[in-house]
Design a protein that fits this description.
Layout (H helix, E strand, L loop, with lengths): L1 E6 L6 E7 L13 E2 L1 E3 L3 E6 L4 E9 L7 E2 L5 E3 L3 E4 L2 E9 L5 E6 L11 E2 L1 E3 L2 E9 L4 E9 L3 E3 L3 E4 L6 E2 L2 E6 L9 E3 L4 E4 L5 H9 L4 E6 L7 E3 L7 E6 L8 H16 L2 E4 L3 H16 L4
Parallel strand pairs: 1-9, 10-19, 21-25, 22-24, 22-25
Antiparallel strand pairs: 1-5, 2-3, 2-6, 4-5, 6-7, 6-8, 10-14, 11-12, 11-15, 13-14, 15-16, 15-17, 18-19, 20-21, 23-24
């Protein structure tokens, strides 16, 4: 049996019901729905035969199904015991984290702090996980990972279409990220216009960048033989430019770097800047960031 429960304070003479797709739940016929049992602290419970359930709650009269008030939003789905919240659904964020870094998450929903605070994810068996409540009518949620190693890095802001998420973890909608499974696919965020990381080499690297809405790749290199600017073969609608910093004169290196990045931002808005040495790349970006905040220098 599967046990469902939900907290709701009804008016006198009302009860909570469950209606669902299966024969065990009345096949969406309210008159054949399951009337739940009231328990202390306004917790309503019901037990249903084990199966993959698609269901919804509604309020009606205790003695007779009439004057029905359905819960809003899309149908719920579970095959586990579920502790639900009226007009809300649970979302479970999971991120592969084999090295057990400290990972925090922030997001657009109220329970996630609307990007004003970060919540530390729990690590277990190479997976970082956090659960949140969101309004059941929300069709999209934005979220961002913050990784703490010797330094602190942030991922791009991701968007998830909640109505297209079909996977569940227990009683929560699952949003799963490969995250840190492949360190060379990690993406960090410098500011709203610049993300950075390793140079993409394989098709799956480009797919990961495209998923993060990063379609303009700026690869920094330092080679005497190569020209200042070259365009690599496009992957679908991704632009991959190679910028040779060897041609930048040392005495005005940072100013030229600032000018170049500003021109690229004006043209492409969002850049993914990459190099296979993140140590060197962070030095370049640190110089850029310092100069962009202090243009008089």
């Amino acid at each position: 049996m599967i046990r469902l429960q939900i907290h709701y304070k009804t008016e006198f003479g009302q009860a909570l019901y469950i209606s669902g797709k299966s024969k065990y739940m009345g096949q969406w016929n309210p008159e054949q729905a399951i009337r739940m049992t009231w328990t202390q602290n306004d917790i309503w419970t019901a037990e249903v035969a084990y199966h993959l359930m698609e269901y919804k709650y509604f309020i009606s009269q205790y003695e007779k199904v009439q004057k029905i008030q359905w819960e809003s939003g899309p149908n719920r789905v579970t095959n586990k015991n579920s502790n639900d919240v009226w007009n809300h659904r649970k979302i479970c964020f999971q991120c592969v984290n084999p090295q057990n870094f400290d990972i925090y998450i922030s997001g657009s929903s109220i329970s996630m702090g609307q990007f004003q605070r970060r919540v530390r994810m729990k690590n277990k068996d190479g997976i970082s996980q956090s659960k949140f409540l969101t309004n059941i009518n929300d069709s999209q949620i934005q979220y961002q990972y913050h990784i703490i190693t010797k330094s602190e890095f942030s991922s791009p802001v991701y968007r998830a279409d909640l109505n297209c998420q079909l996977q569940y973890h227990k009683d929560a909608l699952l949003i799963f990220s490969d995250g840190l499974a492949k360190l060379k696919q990690m993406v960090f965020q410098l500011n709203k216009n610049i993300c950075y990381g390793y140079v993409p080499l394989e098709q799956e690297d480009y797919q990961a960048l495209k998923k993060a809405n990063l379609k303009t790749i700026i690869e920094f290199c330092n080679m005497r033989e190569q020209s200042l600017l070259e365009q690599q073969t496009k992957y679908e609608d991704i632009v991959h430019l190679v910028v040779n910093l060897y041609h930048f004169k040392q005495e005005n290196f940072t100013k030229r770097l600032l000018q170049l990045i500003q021109v690229l931002i004006q043209k492409y808005q969002l850049l993914y800047i990459c190099n296979n040495s993140l140590t060197h790349l962070r030095k370049y970006l640190s110089a850029y960031e310092k100069l962009s905040f202090n243009p008089q220098n």
